[in-house]
Specification:
By secondary structure, the protein is an alpha/beta fold. It folds into 2 domains: 47 residues, no CATH class; 138 residues, no CATH class. Helices cover 48% and strands 17% of the residues. The strands form 2 sheets. Strands 6-5-4-8-7 form a 5-stranded mixed sheet. Helix 7 packs across helix 10. The protein starts with a helix and ends with a helix.
Length: 197
């Protein structure tokens, strides 16, 4: 199997390729040449995909997961991923710990929020989008985050997500109480939870 065939097969299987993942086997300039010939499509700095690979509605999350595997998808992007909102965010919302670097060469526009301690580490799920693993906060954790960051996303968005969560039965109501405690928003969330249940 030729080098080109190996790269194209991997691009078809994986969805999105990051040049750094292949640098031991294949130099970045080789990927650029394949893109110039139309055999690969450049979708961001160092990111390539097969032109025939399907694109999902969460393509921007796959690009972020491929480029920055340690970030966590949060707030509006996580709500949209879990089908808990009618909004479609223009930016991908990610969480970073205080003091962590902020991604600058992102293939999509980012909105970065800072979380620390259990608020950053609890409730993280790993999902696969277009062959790329992404870290996204669980539905109940995302709703608690929306109440915590209601100044950024709006209280109406948090309430809409809470109602969608309860109506759709995505998870147990006890998870809402747990993550409200983790995010220190129990007094804010409790009346809304009790009114919705």
């Amino acid at each position: 199997m030729t080098k080109t065939e190996r790269v194209l097969r991997r691009a078809r299987e994986q969805g999105v390729l990051w040049a750094d993942d292949l640098k031991e086997d294949i130099p970045a300039r080789y990927l650029r040449r394949l893109a110039e010939r139309g055999e690969l499509e450049r979708v961001g700095r160092g990111l390539y995909r097969h032109p025939d690979a399907p694109i999902s509605e969460h393509h921007s999350l796959a690009l972020i997961g491929a480029r920055y595997p340690d970030v966590r998808i949060c707030l509006l992007s996580a709500l949209q991923f879990h089908d808990l909102t009618t909004q479609w965010p223009r930016k991908v919302w990610i969480a970073r710990e205080p003091g962590d670097w902020t991604p600058t060469a992102s293939p999509v526009e980012l909105e970065v929020v800072r979380m620390s301690g259990a608020s950053f580490t609890e409730g993280v799920e790993t999902h696969e989008v277009e062959g790329v693993p992404i870290n996204v906060f669980a539905p109940a954790k995302t709703i608690a985050d929306c109440f915590k960051f209601r100044g950024k996303v709006g209280t109406d968005t948090a309430i809409e997500a809470l109602r969608s969560y309860v109506r759709s039965g995505v998870g147990p109501v006890d998870d809402l109480y747990h993550f409200a405690d983790v995010c220190s928003v129990q007094t804010v969330m409790r009346p809304y939870i009790e009114a919705t249940v």
